[in-house]
Amino acid sequence: MSVRQPVTLLAAAAAVLALAAAAFTVGRYPVATPDLLRVLWSWLADIPHGLDPAIEAVVLQIRGPRVLAALMVGASLAAAGAAYQNLFRNPLVSPDILGVSSGAAVGAVLGIFLSLGIVMIQSLAFAAGLAAVGLVYAVARSVRGHDPLLVLVLAGVVIGSLLGACVALMKYLADPYNQLPAITFWLLGSLAAVTPQDLKFAAPLMLAGLLPLWLLRWRVNVLSLGDEEARALGVPAGRIRIAVIAGATLMTSAAVAISGVVGWIGLVIPHFARMLTGPDFSRLLPVSVLLGAGFLVAVDMLARTMADIEVPLGVLTAFIGTPLFLWQLATARRGWQ
Amino acid sequence: MTLAAENLAFGYRGRRVGSDISLELAGGEVLCLLGPNGSGKTTLFKTLLGLLPPQAGRVLLDGRDAALLSHEEIARQVSYVPQAHSAFFPYTVREVVLMGRTAHLGVFASPTPGDRALALDALERMGIAPLGDAVYTRISGGERQLALIARALVQEARIVVMDEPTANLDFGNRVRVLERVRALAADGISVLLSTHDPDHAFLCADRVALLERGCLLGLGRPGEQMTADALQRLYGIPVSLAEIRTPEGMRRVCIPSFGVSGPR
Fold it and tell me: Which residues of chain A are within 8 Å of residue B49 when distances are taken between CB atoms?
């Protein structure tokens, strides 16, 4: 039996809030909790707080965007992963199955390679992520006479590896002193450079992507029975799938554009969420969002506090995600059959 | 509410499976489709359900061409009970049954308490109410079949198409499922089902359709159509028919000859 929905949701929301608050306080420049609350209150109420301006700068300019970005990126990747796993009827699917991450990587690396500004790099990453999935979908549509789901996944794998080759080529050609470190840094994922402008850019896109997933939550359940049964139950499988793919791609692309490639969240978090809620997407989606947000805030906290230098996020999520996933594979059967 | 096929030809892209099928399913009737492996039973069902486009002819729902109806419109009138499969995710039996309500829900809507009450009611009618909270992937094949029939019930369609509802079931569960089929017909629901066991047609069918290599070999009352000759032609083995006295009266059964079948 699954835990009762309101209890799960409330507990997860409280945990995420606590984690986010903790994330504000720790770091190279620790901020005491009362100071944090005063700064936040003064910002909200627009009154002076009488503290060191450096504290305000740390809270509002440096950590604020970073913590918010961690919440948003984690939530987006987990939500997209949950949607894709239901859609593709496979618990091993992650948001980059259709090439959105490899596409975004090509866009960002191209931007760095051409020495463009950060806004252009992000826009290129975002656009190339969408374009990659569009290409995969178009290729899959043009192949007829096979299981459409299988063709879609295969097209994603094939085009993903082609895009990987493009990234490798640009890395090989890039200036090893300026561009290559920037490329590597981006490919490993980081929230260190996130600005308030990035959030303004990404937040509406992520919300716009989340909306169809939430609205179509019941149809997503029916779709996980397979195309034929879904149609027999009255669901136009192809159209619903396109809407869900579009939403999940929008969220992932926006996330990758501001954070770089952060793997594992979209694969592992929906699993844990499914353990708590069962497979019903209307309960799985909100819990995935909360768990994803909390997980990335915690990992990012680790990334900036565990060593003297920042540990790349993508590396940390893999180091934490792999054992978590294996442990879950070995102990829990509930999420699958 | 009637479902009819008019000179229907069916198959997959580039491959015709059957042709010249004309039949009509009357209200409250149980029509049993018999045919050997590969005769096109499932393909015919998918075409009747609008899951495959007809290659020629028409499928008519209450006289309207089904090709012009949306999946949702068809689903409100015809429900499909596939072979008891295992789902990919561990939905509860209640959730699986609720999915039958989808054709009645708006695109963005989720099931309401009213839908839940209908699902509970259907579970009770199938006699599996205690399984509502059980995980669908962990119940037995017979229970899954009953759950899928419950799902077809909440779909509130007047026509139910069942693809081998007795496949993979034990001796007792087969009879239980066939009894449910008769009960549906008694409620005025038309049932079209396929089976591999001619005795099942004797048990529950008002009419039978014999399908051989995609063509109708016969269509009519079981006692008239299911002769020893017709069954031998259909299955390629000699068949004897016998009348057996049972507690409910005389019953016709079908007995295959054993040890004399040549290669097909």
Answer: 232
Q: B3-222 — its CATH code?
A: 3.40.50.300
Q: Give how far B214 is from chain A: nearest CA, Å.
A: 21
CA distances from B65 to A233, B58, B59, B75 (A): 19, 6, 6, 14
B-chain residues within 8 Å CB-CB of A221?
Answer: 91, 95, 99
The CATH architecture annotation of domain A5-331 reads: Orthogonal Bundle (1.10)
Per-residue pLDDT tens digits of chain A, which is 337 residues long: 344 678 878 888 998 999 999 998 888 888 888 888 888 888 888 888 888 888 888 888 889 999 999 999 999 999 999 999 988 888 778 888 888 989 999 999 999 999 898 889 889 999 999 999 999 989 988 887 777 788 888 999 999 999 999 999 999 999 899 899 889 888 888 898 888 889 998 999 999 999 999 999 999 999 999 888 999 999 999 899 999 999 999 999 999 989 988 888 999 999 888 888 889 999 999 999 999 999 999 999 999 888 888 888 988 998 998 898 888 778 765 544 4
Minimal Cβ distance to B108: which of A215, A221, A334? A215
Provide the residue ranges of all domains of chain B, joining segments of one domain with +. 3-222, 227-264
Residue A212 CA to residue A246 CA, distance in Å, equals: 9
Q: What is the pTM of this model?
A: 0.89
Sign of the CA dihedral with B129 first, then B132, B138, and B143 last: positive
CB A77 within 8 A of CB A207: no
